[in-house]
# Entry
Amino acid sequence: MEVIDLRSDTVTQPTEAMRRAIRDAELGDDVFEDDPTVKRLEEMAARLLGKEAALFMPSGTMANLVAVITHTRRGDEVIVGDESHILHYEVGGASALGGVLLRTVPNDRRGRLRAEDVAAVIRPEDIHFPRTALLCLENTHNRCGGTALSPDDLAPVVAVARRHGIPIHLDGARIFNAAVALGVPAAELARDADSVMFCLSKGLSAPVGSLLCGSRAFIARARRVRKMLGGGMRQVGAVAAAGIVALETMIDRLAEDHAHARYLAERLAELPGVEIDPAAVETNIVVFTLREGTADEFLPRLAQAGVLATNFGPRRIRLVTHYGIERRHIDAAVARLARVLPVAV
# Structure
């Protein structure tokens, strides 16, 4: 039985073109800033995101952490959404390693923050209070179902941050999914961010790596933080080469993943044990709710049936379409899921 892995788009395998690029990459020592392949990748990333410079990172988690540390001082406060990846899935690194506090405001169902909520938690100048030093946004928004947020969606909170002189970091792990879904350049989505991170190793299918983009001065400071955290790699052009292929060849094909996700949601909506609104699926992430039973009980049965998925709450399940998943896999996954769904008695 073929296992259908829908846990994440991080399970993608590199393409043959990526494997050839890895083998043939021209290498240097990136800590000395003389790896030509890394330099080329960073230049491409900065250009695509509309920023002056970029820095290659081992992971999106490290890129977000480096951004937070670079923007802040120890004891500062950072505003994040209560459903943000930085809050839920990055091991508390901003606090443990960056020494900053995370102040949460509610995300709405699409991952947006209300301007009035952000304004309400910005600290006034007072000797008793930490300094509000950064606002973090996310696009696409993972825990809110892979929603693609437009500049208009983000404009109200951007205006609040600008009014108070607070920089903005954008967790754009899947920003190219958002760009494809909205039909706009990624640079347009990153326009109002002082820094932005994106991942090569999700829907773009590279084996490893993320990029942090911003001004030249910001990236120069971030390079020191990356080194401090152990992220200064040497002949890393061997993996950066795959990232170049990803940016050259894998962005437009993300539309296939989005189409497969919508088809998956439509098929799931036909099942009596599932709650889902197919119209809410905007990119490659599908989240549904079990009408009976729990995710902890259901996921092992689904895995035994040959479908891997992710627990997203007591009854919520996440499925992610990606390179390597075709329509036939979705039909098979839905059939297997239907067989193991808990039913009301």
Summary: The first strand starts at residue 4 and ends at 5. The mean pLDDT is 96.
